[in-house]
Design goal:
By secondary structure, the protein is an alpha/beta fold. Helix 2 packs across helix 3. The longest helix has 15 residues. The mean pLDDT is about 90.
């Protein structure tokens, strides 16, 4: 496996956005292959990135024969739409290097957890946002072919315990810029141009209510976008792979029933985009 990192933003004072690349290599004399690619967006509330939800998840997808990437996107104070542009730039870059990196440009998946799931749902829904074109990125190259969402936070609607929590994480100037507010209500903006989506969540997640998964699935259903939804009855927030590799020494984060999500997701990817 070849591992290297690419800095996405060369401008000073714009943060340090990085695409970590993990590429399967050909044996000498082996014919070129066209692997499916998976971009993983770790969670962390847009204040930090959880290492448990990055490289270990990328390695799990790589073990299934996929080219994998971890997107270290913009965090506060570099607020929306900056993370959206990071995701658009990463997907576009992967497409541009399809031949060099032995991947299929029409089989690019992006997905993430918690806030990383918010970003993944955002690029899936707003891939044709005018600000992407204004940033010099071809919107058509920024659209993922499929998405996976793990305990993703996609809406503030109906969250009576933490009203406005998502909006506050997305921007300090949320009131002054209503355009940013839509990233806190993503299901309201789903269209029939959203890519197929795999969703999983736990029913008792105390941080991101399971309603997020249900509302997103309902929005996809209303627009006849293919999706697969798995709700596990038990498990806290932040499970990642739900195994010993991502439990951070906490046995409560090892949930055998949830560990199967990665196999289900890979099977779904193969059925959905080949």
């Amino acid at each position: 496996m070849k591992h290297f990192s690419i800095h996405l933003d060369a401008e000073p004072n714009h943060g340090d956005q990085v695409l970590d690349c993990y590429l399967l290599e050909r044996m000498p004399g082996e014919a070129p292959q066209h692997f499916t690619s998976v971009v993983v967006c770790p969670g962390g509330g847009y204040t930090h990135l959880s290492p448990r939800e990055g490289e270990p998840v990328a390695m799990a997808f790589a073990a299934k024969g996929m080219q994998t990437f971890v997107l270290r996107y913009s965090l506060k104070p570099f607020i929306f739409p900056k993370p959206l542009l990071d995701a658009a730039k990463a997907i576009s870059m992967i497409r541009d290097h399809a031949e060099e990196w032995d991947l299929d440009p029409d089989k690019i998946v992006i997905g993430g957890f918690s806030a990383g799931g918010n970003l993944s749902a955002a690029i899936a829904t707003f891939w044709n946002d005018k600000r992407i074109e204004e940033a010099g990125i071809d919107c058509r190259k920024a659209r993922p072919n499929a998405v996976f969402l793990g305990y993703a936070v996609v809406t503030d609607e109906g969250d009576h315990e933490h009203p406005g929590a998502l909006a506050k994480r997305l921007s300090e100037d949320i009131i002054e810029d209503p355009e940013i507010l839509k990233f806190a209500y993503i299901p309201d903006y789903v269209t029939d141009e959203n890519p197929p989506t795999f969703i999983w969540h736990t029913a008792e997640d105390p941080v991101v209510p399971v309603r997020n998964a249900l509302v997103m699935a309902n929005a996809l259903a209303e627009h006849k976008v293919p999706f697969e939804l798995h709700i596990y009855p038990k498990g806290p927030h932040g499970l990642a792979l739900a195994n010993e590799h991502t439990c951070n020494g906490n046995p409560e984060m090892i949930i055998p029933e949830v560990q199967g999500w990665i196999d289900l997701c890979c099977d779904w990817i193969c059925r959905t985009i080949g």
